[in-house]
């Protein structure tokens, strides 16, 4: 029986060996496909201030230590905001504060507000 299906067994052996080789060398070839593979892989975000700190969503300017030390029982930061900030941090290779600034500038631009806080509407009237 084995001799009758040697082509099938040869292909199966070849596929298993190729898969094994790719698995053990994934550290060298996987980074090359970083842009091809989806950037939004599953990442569980802990709904607490302690989890937010562990995820790197804290800095000197945005300190969550007081919330954790006080035993704050709230659910932590906004889940959608966390996802957006983590995505920016990963794509831009920047710090938490820089990612927050980029996110706020994008949100302001979507609402017709310049980065300095002035409206972009040409009909806006300013009084000094």
TrEMBL record:
Q: Which UniProt keywords apply?
A: Membrane, Signal, Transmembrane, Transmembrane helix
Q: Which Pfam families match?
A: DUF2015 (PF09435)
Its transmembrane ranges are 6-25
What family is it from? Belongs to the UPF0357 family.
Report what the protein is called: Uncharacterized protein
Task: List the taxonomic lineage.
Answer: Eukaryota, Fungi, Dikarya, Ascomycota, Pezizomycotina
